[in-house]
Amino acid sequence: MSQAAYLTGQFLLAMPSMGDRDFDHAVIAMCAHDAEGAVGIGLGDVIGGIGFHSVLRQFGIDPGDAPDAPVHVGGPVEVRRGFLIHSLDWMGQDSVDVAGRWALSGSLDILRAIAAGAGPRQWVIALGYAGWGAGQLDGELATPGWLPVKGGIDLLYDVPAADRWQRAFAGAGIDPRLLVSGAGTA
């Protein structure tokens, strides 16, 4: 299996040594990774003061009984564009099955379905995404900035954003408190 096939449907965890504020404690759900590039949705942080109901109202959709879930910082690219990662029990006009683990949707039909109580059973919403050009992520993976992990689906839906990074490391058998942000000298 190629590394690209391995990363789709997995999580990328930012190592403390990364030093990039956009990705501090990042947990990125990888949705695509091939020869043309990679796309993932960040789920390690939420946007303060914005909930799912705010997003729905911006599109003139009545929230109904939908929960006012937090909106995640999906990444530094197209920060005004929304994405939902959701369970595979609902597929819409633009939904993409991500390695049989979850689906990715980004159109209004999923917002309307959730507000009407007819959407996917589980979902998280984010604004923006993390994107890499052809070969860029492969190059970054050759340095000590990212740790790819399989991680359980519960990481998406059952773990609060503030706890995802640490829980993902723990799930990989790593105590992130023991990681250092710099290199030593011999």
Order of helices and strands: HEEEEHEEEEHEHEHH
Q: Write down how many β-strands occur, each being a DSSP E stretch of 2 or more residues.
A: 10
Q: What percent of residues adopt helix (DSSP H or I)? A: 10-25%
CATH class designation: Alpha Beta
Average pLDDT figure: 90
Computed CA radius of gyration, to the nearest angstrom = 17 Å
- The residue ranges in which pLDDT falls below 50 over 5 or more consecutive positions are none
Main β-sheet description: 10 strands, mixed
**Structure annotation, total helices:** 6
CATH H-level superfamily: VC0467-like
Question: Which percent band covers the strand fraction?
Answer: 25-35%
Cα shape = globular
Proper CATH architecture: 3-Layer(aba) Sandwich
Distance between the termini: 37 Å
Question: What structural class should be given to the helix and strand makeup?
Answer: alpha+beta
What is the domain tally? Answer: 1
CATH topology: VC0467-like
